[in-house]
């Protein structure tokens, strides 16, 4: 399958950019969904090894992450390792009062989960944490480029949640290596990533 051509020097036209992003989203979602269960499991194990060897992960106490959906690379092997190390990961939950934003809840082995309106499991917990309380956020990607630009599912939840630059934790995108494209069309509200890690390794974009 051939990716749609994106010309980064073309005049900025909102409808055109939205069309390009929608086309890329369709292609890249299909690309990750086409991976076999064996390929997905192998990629998840490689990803966990890369994450566990990353100094940034070792230095972080509160790590927010996600449960896989729609072919996203799984963080479950990494989560299992965090639990073994005595660390508590955090999962996003749709904020009940601030529309289109997220807050984070602790995720433990015995956490009860329930699906949100998108069918994505969320933990049930009396304790909630604000985005600024996270040291590191591992967020899913539909697509990315080497400059740290990300293409999400289109809901804008992470962009709105981390729009305030001074309150952002370290943001690291997580994806299969096959989701990389040469250049993404970018919107002014897109929140850039500090780095990206795939099953092939770490891509440093904005960290020293």
Automatic annotation (TrEMBL):
Annotated SUPFAM superfamilies: NagB/RpiA/CoA transferase-like
InterPro entries: FTHF_cligase, FTHF_cligase-like_sf, NagB/RpiA_transferase-like
Keyword Transferase attached: no
Keywords: ATP-binding, Ligase, Magnesium, Metal-binding, Nucleotide-binding
Entry binding sites for ATP: 21-25, 150-158
Cofactor: Mg(2+)
Catalyzed chemical reaction(s): (6S)-5-formyl-5,6,7,8-tetrahydrofolate + ATP = (6R)-5,10-methenyltetrahydrofolate + ADP + phosphate
Enzyme kind, highest EC tier: ligase
Chain residues that bind substrate: 67, 72
GO process terms (BP): folic acid-containing compound biosynthetic process; tetrahydrofolate interconversion
UniProt keyword annotation of Hydrolase present: no
Single annotated GO MF: ATP binding
Entry's EC annotation: 6.3.3.2
NCBIfam families named in the record: MTHFS_bact
Similarity comment: family membership: Belongs to the 5-formyltetrahydrofolate cyclo-ligase family.
Protein name: 5-formyltetrahydrofolate cyclo-ligase
Organism encoding this protein: Salinispirillum sp. LH 10-3-1
